[in-house]
Amino acid sequence: MNNEQYLVVVSGPSGSGKDTVVSRLMAQHPEIEISVSATTRDKRPGEAEGVNYYYLTVPAFEQKIADGEILEYTRYCGNYYGTPKSEVDRRIAAHTTVILVIEVVGATNIKRLYPGATTIFIQPPSYAELEERLRGRGTESEQAIQSRLARAAEEMSYATDYDEVVVNDDVDRCADEIYRLIR
Question: What domains are there in the chain, each with its CATH number?
Answer without folding.
Answer: 4-182 (3.40.50.300)
